[in-house]
Design a protein that fits this description.
About 55% of the residues lie in helices and about 0% in strands. The chain has a two-stranded antiparallel ribbon. The protein has 28 helices and 2 strands. The relative contact order is 0.09. By secondary structure, it is mostly helical. The radius of gyration is 25 Å and the shape is globular. α8 packs antiparallel against α9 and α12 crosses α13.
Length: about 525
């Protein structure tokens, strides 16, 4: 069975779909293309981002079995604890890649879109679903596409799919979508009877029906006002979230606790949410990799000029402005400390992302006392060469030194066992971080074979242990399949936090990523382990 999708129907019961071949569609009974032949998109290669725009090469999955790849996606528990692996996984999933053998291109797009939704990437999930022409949709893709549109707060995105979905994948959600789309198209005379019929047949009731009616009223000539009350609602579903976002209805904070963390990331991406309500989810999304440093800074910059934002958020925006643009380096550093929670506090990773480019402006000689946080902040946004400038300033054996040793793209020398032994572990779990540093350096090839064996024994890191996962990862790397390698890397990093990830897994992941040419991402993941363990 396909992993249960978020509820797309108007009740709270999840839907499941059997993994079966989609029913044959008779071209004579379907709407024909209105586009010329050259504009039609093939299912042989699907995805919105080409390799020229930062995506993977079309052969990213090589000769991998399509059903095997889909199973990996379906079994992957998201979100992941690593920001950088999440970013890399998103890049793999949105890339225009060749459809692997033994799978349908539309179903392959559905699995990719569904995984992106579980990661919190609502906009990316919608883009992947929309990269398939509508008359090529399968029942699975119809189901996922509804979830993607709702997660993006875009019920109008359902309208091109309604007729096909009602024919090949009917459900109560699509019945309600018929009425909403009639209203959004400025045809309330058609929407009204459809809503009445849905009520009479028990298709929807309560908050689900009211939200649908509010969408209908938002269309041209809707001429109806619907008041939404959340009293008695004890579950936030994709239906309720999506229609609330589309109509500007505020979802109570306590309802977000009934859904997974990815729904907060959907909220951060929704332009209909008031700035004051977006700041907390936006920080969470930035720590996860859903939002970039630039996007998070832009949200705070907009909040600084919003009179409706609370005073605490305004103070944060003011500190951020000081950290970025004040002419006095001491004032900038003081503002960053304030953003990190105080001089002696360990900042959240999201706040390190927030200050990344402010940290990059600091003179190493002036920021030596805060080097661990400053270097971690820079690397959270991928500024590896900027961080490497601090190498002569930071103490050997510190967290900052360890992160630079892992992330420096221009280092050509191997470290010795003595260099590794000088690392004290810094903040956090020092024993785990020592093992993570060893795993990262070994995976990156920055230790000699003799030192790897010696350190593996002294730190009790069984880098030579094999299991089904390590063999699959090695095979994918050997076959030159970066897409499969990224998926398997994510499989190996399913944990609640970095503290739960074995150093042996980090060693395998970093080595496999290097093996398929993803050296930069491998270095960033290894450095992130030091910052967050």
């Amino acid at each position: 069975m396909v992993q249960p999708l978020p509820p797309t129907t108007v009740d709270a019961a999840p839907a499941t779909t059997a993994v079966t071949a989609p029913p044959a569609i008779d071209p004579a009974t379907t709407a024909q293309y209105e586009m010329p032949d050259f504009a039609r998109r093939s299912l042989a290669s699907v995805g919105p981002v080409t390799s020229g725009n930062g995506g993977f090469d079309t052969a990213a999955f090589g000769d991998a079995d399509g059903q095997y790849v889909e199973t990996l996606m379906r079994r992957l528990s998201a979100p992941l604890p690593s920001r950088w692996l999440s970013i890399l996984l998103r890049r793999a999933l949105v890339s225009r890649v060749d459809t692997p053998r033994r799978t349908n291109g539309a179903d392959f797009a559905a699995e990719r879109s569904w995984l992106l939704l579980r990661m919190g990437e609502s906009n990316a999930a919608r883009a992947v679903a929309q990269s398939v022409d509508t008359n090529n949709y399968t029942p699975k893709l119809f189901q996922v596409a509804m979830n993607a549109a709702l997660a993006a707060g875009d019920p109008a995105g359902l309208c091109p799919l309604v007729s096909g979905a009602m024919r090949y994948a009917p459900s109560r959600g699509w019945t309600m979508a018929q009425a909403m789309c009639a209203g959004l198209s400025g045809n309330p005379a058609q929407a009204g009877p459809l809503i009445a019929t849905a009520k009479r047949r028990g298709v929807a009731s309560g908050i689900d029906m009211l939200l649908a009616q509010k969408v209908v009223g938002a269309g041209a000539q809707g001429r109806q006002a619907v008041t939404i009350e959340w009293n008695g609602v004890d579950q936030l579903t994709a239906w309720r979230f999506g229609l609330a976002m589309a109509t500007g209805v505020t979802v109570p904070d306590e309802l977000y606790a009934t859904a997974g963390p990815q729904v907060r990331y959907w909220q951060a991406l929704s332009p209909s949410v008031a700035l004051g309500n977006r700041l907390v989810p936006a920080e969470a999304a930035a720590g996860q990799g859903v939002l970039s440093n630039a996007a998070l800074v832009d949200i705070y910059a907009a909040a600084a000029n919003d009179d409706d934002v609370q005073s605490a958020a305004s103070a944060t925006a003011t500190d951020l402005q000081t950290a970025y643009v004040d002419r006095n380096p001491d004032a900038r550093l003081t503002a960053m400390r304030q953003l990190w929670g105080g001089a002696n506090a360990r900042p959240t990773y999201a706040r390190l992302v927030l200050t990344a480019r402010a940290a990059a402006r600091m003179n190493p000689a002036l920021g030596k006392a805060d080097a661990d946080h400053l270097v971690a902040s820079m690397l959270s946004a991928g500024m590896d060469r900027t961080a490497a400038r601090w190498l002569g300033t930071v103490p050997v054996g510190s967290d900052a030194w360890a992160m630079i040793m892992l992330s420096d793209p221009d280092t050509y020398r191997r470290l010795s066992y003595g260099d590794l032994a000088s690392y004290t572990g810094g903040e956090g779990d020092s024993a785990l971080k020592q093992r993570m540093l060893f795993a990262g350096l070994a995976g990156l090839g920055r230790l000699s074979q003799g030192d790897i064996e010696r350190a593996a024994q002294s730190l009790n890191v069984r880098i030579g242990a094999e299991n089904a996962w390590t063999r699959a990862l090695d095979r994918a790397a050997r076959d030159g399949q970066p897409g499969t390698v990224v998926l398997l890397a994510a499989i190996g990093m399913q944990a609640a936090s970095w503290k739960d990830i074995p150093p042996e897994a980090l060693y395998r992941i970093v080595g496999a990523l290097r093996g398929v040419g993803l050296d930069g991402e491998a270095r960033m993941i290894a450095a992130e382990a030091i910052a967050r363990a």
